[in-house]
Amino acid sequence: MEDGVSSENRSKGPDAKGMSKSMKKYLLVFNCVILSVGNCIAPLTNRLYSVKGGKRVWLMCALETAGFPFLVIPMIISYIYRRRKGGPKTKFLSMSRVLILPCIVIGILTGADDYMDSAGVSRLPVSTYSLVLSSQLGFTAFFAWILVKQKFTFLHFNAILLLTAGSVVLAFHTGSDLPAKESKADYVLGFLMTLGAAMLYGFVLPIIELLYKKAKQTITYSLVMEMQFVMASAATAFCVGGMIINKDFQAIPREAEKYELGKAMYALVLVADAFLWQLFFLGAVGVIFCHSSLLSGILISALLPLSEVLAVFIFNEKFTPEKGMSLFLSCWGSLSYFYEEHKLEKKKKQAAQNESKSIEVPGDLKKEKCVAEDDDQASNIP
């Protein structure tokens, strides 16, 4: 878990010094899985809180990062592993002071994103919310190109355009699936808030990748968890400040009493929401560590169809023609991206094989030349 990848070597991909190719693939798969679970189910718990009587937007905002104490468990496991290899002098925390301030700033940006995200999901059906959030990929791609010089092929652009177009379709039909007892103004505000959240988090993902590249210390998965802990702590502090100003702490007991599913279920929904969102955030930064911010954004958008299906079945939401078109574009864009990644991976393997052959051939020729010279010398012996 601690196999190190320096900030310079990390950009070289899975063969980076300090971590085997297979280990990095397993780690990438693990982070993709936890990102998928959080990305698909966390919006459903958010909506469950809202539709059953929850009205505190700042509370829901804080829950998106309040699960950071759960990170202590994998951090302890990582420390035990590192201590076995490094001895009793191994420090529990490896994060340098230089990284603390950037992580706090990113955490505050995440807190602001959480507020817009929570305000959006509380006003929109989950299916609409998910599809509008898919525009995040376009913003992620743009900022990745600007900040970390991400390279794109035609199929990458095609995937980004298709996935972003899926949310644009909804912009022309806002209000077609207006929830009961909700004004059109609230619906439009939720749409704009969700779009703003997509834009801001599309900026945050490449910023995290840039921080990994510019860090002046070895970037390990243990350090990634420590950085996530600091970012989530700062985001939660930002949101708790909003809760204090909005007097949410005084309102929570009253809200729990009136919650349609009961007080116990109210508490369970809050805890589950915090845990699921932490899975999402840890998975997102983990995918950035193992691959790139663009892949993290692609996965978030590619998982939307599952969120669509779950929302329709669980909350009996309408599946309008506009959502069907958006779903089709999202699937098409996802397939386009992963097909291109598959092609690029095959090209890399072929190039590596050709390079190894070009190294072997001169050696064989040299051996043949030496044998020929020995034969000539032997033939000249009287």
TrEMBL record:
Membrane topology of the entry: Multi-pass membrane protein
Gene Ontology molecular function, alphabetical: purine nucleobase transmembrane transporter activity; purine nucleoside transmembrane transporter activity
Subcellular location: Membrane
Coiled coil ranges: none
Annotated keywords: Membrane, Transmembrane, Transmembrane helix, Transport
The family this protein is said to belong to: Belongs to the purine permeases (TC 2.A.7.14) family.
Name the UniProt record assigns to this protein: Probable purine permease
